[in-house]
Amino acid sequence: MSALLPPEFLFRYTFSAKQMDGLPRRGKRLLNLPVECALPSLAGLAQRSDFGEVRIAWNGRGLGVSVSVSGKSGPPLSDPEKLGQSDGLRLWIDTRCTQTVHRAGRFCHQFALVPVGGSEDGLQPVATLWPVARANEDPPPYDSELLPIQSEISDRGYRLEAWLPADALHGYDPESQPRLGFSYLLNDSQLGRQCLSISEEFPFDADPSLWCPLELASE
Question: CA-based angle 3:191:131, to the nearest 5?
Fold first, then answer.
């Protein structure tokens, strides 16, 4: 008999982000986050396997997020204008971690990071800021072209790194607000979809109360 609720929904999971003051880096690697920054996988609870590893770190200047995808048999397919249909990572961040409201407000953000699809040749990565679905209020606008992003494509997958500056995260204040609401969805045209916790059976794309607390752990 199948469970009425998925195992991931039975508990409130809190994750931790490592503080790294040297971000973003200069040179070939924007972030180069160590394995200690990897978010734990909850895939075993739902008897599934993950195809991507997401790492995250923070400092007073913003958040760094990277994802590595493996197991593909062809190049990633992305169109920055088609949210939800492209290979890549979608992020939801609430700089107030309210956890009690079901409609997004001005402190709630949605970012889409895709490994290809930008520039005239369509081979460059793109980061964009999108409104959260059914939001009561949107955060102040931010020029997505100012979001630093890098990608590296291989025969079996890709690595994607992005820096989300504090100016793009309305209300970002780690000293007084050391917890963020956080969720992600990793989409792949070949491998399927991977979520941080609960799956798309629940409307986490629009409901901040379903996002997980992310603690900005100090050194």
Answer: 80
What SS3 class is residue 19?
strand
Please give the average per-residue pLDDT across 72-88, as a whole number.
91
Which pLDDT score is estimated for 120?
Answer: 85
pTM score, whole prediction:
0.93
**167 backbone φψ class: left, alpha, beta (φ>0; ψ -120 to 50):** alpha
pLDDT reported for residue 1: 37
Under CATH, what is the fold of the domain 7-217? Immunoglobulin-like (2.60.40)
Contact 65, 89 (CB under 8 A): yes
**Residue of 135, 126, 79 lying closest to 107 (CA atoms):** 135
Is beta strand 149-153 parallel, antiparallel or unpaired with respect to 124-130? unpaired
Question: Which among 52, 25, 69 has a CA at the least distance from the CA of 159?
Answer: 69
pLDDT tens digits, one per residue of 188-204:
999 999 999 877 778 89
Q: Domain extents for the chain? A: 7-217
d(CA 65, CA 117): 19
CB neighbours of 129 closer than 8 A, spacing ≥ 6?
109, 110, 111, 141, 142, 144, 147, 168
